[in-house]
Protein: EcsC family protein
Amino acid sequence: MQIESSLPTPIDVEAEIEKLARRYKSAGGLGINVLNLIGGSADNLIERLPEGIRRNLESATITALNQAMKAAHSSRSVVPDQASWLNQAVSTAMGAAGGAGGLPTALAELPVTTTLLLRVIQGVAVEHGFDPEAESVQFDCVQVFAAAGPLSGDDGADLGFLSARLALSGKAMQAVIANIAPKLAVVLGQKLAAQTVPVLGAVAGAATNYAYTSYYEDVAHVHFGLRKLAIDADVPHGDLLAQLEVKMAKPKVTA
Structure:
């Protein structure tokens, strides 16, 4: 009679790190298609926005994030986490609606899309076994927004968003939001500009939102996948991050 071993299967840390590296490297692929659609580059997108909008992007981003935090948190008891394809479909529809009316509707749609993106990130946290009600996990969810946006052309070299940790305090969330706002303002500014491209408005809005939803879902899997691996493999998070940085620095092998 053969007795099955109850010992857990050893975790191949290197293989898991390789998977995370591949996922992050491929995260922004859809953004290239969006830039090809609308013409131009990510660097000059924000220059297309009116000066007043550019000047207030950061404050608008802080407002959108604060609204998203409240809405995403309260909606969890009403609307369960959705499948990836459904999130992408809803986001695409919202982007099309936002782009159809030009800048005014794109601005109105911005906090709604930000809320959806945050819910997508929270859903990934749950998928990896984390409690979205925990304050530390809520911080991590917002921290995912510190990754470069899908239109940046980032190759994954900047992994700082994975390592940032702030002490928990009553004002910690505002500190997280204030820290992320400047970078996210650029990312959301690119989204707004893409949605206001003449003629293409609704199409560009739909494509942009689809790219953003896919991107932040992938980035969230990298973020929480690394944290889960640290727990399961009993390896310090910093050591895993160092391994991931090495993987990300390796050039792609072409056939």
Summary: The mean pLDDT is 81. The chain is about 70% helix and 0% strand. The two ends are 49 Å apart (CA to CA). The first helix runs from residue 13 to 26.
